[in-house]
Amino acid sequence: MRDLERTIARGYAIEYRVRTYPVYTTCRGYKGTIHPCWRDRVQRVPRRVNVNMDEVRRRAADLRARIPALSASADRGAGQCRATYAQIAAQEG
Q1: Fewer CB atoms inside 10 A, N or C side of the chain?
Q2: pLDDT at 38
Q3: Residues with Cβ < 8 Å from 7, sequence gap 6 or more?
Q4: For residues 19 and 43, what is the distance between their CA atoms, to the nearest angstrom?
Q5: DSSP bridge partners of 42
């Protein structure tokens, strides 16, 4: 939901891509010796992505409408979990 709201505020989405590039550095060998070597560095790079703003607004409105039902379902599941684990704790104690 936050991502959709941020996308609406910005007017575009942000997509992250992983960029790997070699770096010349020092490495430690089998017996502790130090020698030069190549290692891969990994970097997450943000990229702007054009999106259909009408579709993003529609998805955000759909999620806002579904939040009460999803919250009720999550609360019921959490209650069942608490009840189950309370019984197990009572058996062990």
Answers
A1: C
A2: 95
A3: 13, 14, 51, 56
A4: 5
A5: 20
Helix, strand and coil percent figures for the chain, each rounded to 5 = 55, 35, 15
Report CA-CA distances (Å) from 39 to 28, 34, 42.
12, 14, 10
Residue 93: per-residue pLDDT: 52
Rounded CA separation 57/74 (Å): 25
- Give the three-state DSSP class for 19: strand
Handedness of CA 9, 10, 15, 20 (dihedral sign): negative
Residue ranges in the chain whose pLDDT is less than 70:
88-93
